[in-house]
Amino acid sequence: MHTDPHVSSSRPGQIVGNPGTLTRPAAMPLDAWPRVTCSSSNWVPGTSGESWLNRAVGGNDSGMNRMRAIVKKIENARAPDTVAAVADRTIGPLLGTRSARYVLGGVWLGHRVHPLLVTVPIGSWTSALLLDLTRNDADAARRLVGFGALTAVPSALTGWSDWTQANGSARRVGVAHAAANGVAIALFSGSYLARGRSRSVGTALAVAGAGALSIGGYLGGHLTYVQGVGVEPPTVGMPTA
Description:
disordered N terminus
């Protein structure tokens, strides 16, 4: 793996400045990021040649291009702005305060809380689906689905608290991320209720919930790894850039 010496080490979402005066640049739109391609066995950013994904799987990266196009539409859409404005008026005063960000944002821990908490509902729901697919212990599967739905609530609260510090297109992607996860929580909650009457119906709802959760996870990864939301040390202040 080679590093281009001409590429600046400062990228969107990375920390700039001295400790104590950290700022986060505005998120860069997805289409502004350079593509990573390879022309030989070494991966070199910005060079021409066959895409590394094509080399890796022996196919084409049309699926990736479609996902990039979808995320770009979300970044440029205006509809999420309406939801964001409502969230600013309702969620902002509750989860965007200094005390809320201290607790939910992980200032007390020195680390973001949201990525820690999301593993609990994801793990619970995945375990339940494994029990469903192997036709094992229906009661345990139902308890896992219910536990995942309960723990998804504090996970969502920490995510919304982090969202109050996002800006630009990251706010729109954050709204879409929250919407997909909200659908997932609703489907898994419905799965829990349905399992009291029919495991098959409950399993079908859980599978649909897993699909929504995957979409939410993809958008959450984009927020973090592309737009840099939540990668800086948690603070109680608002971003200055």
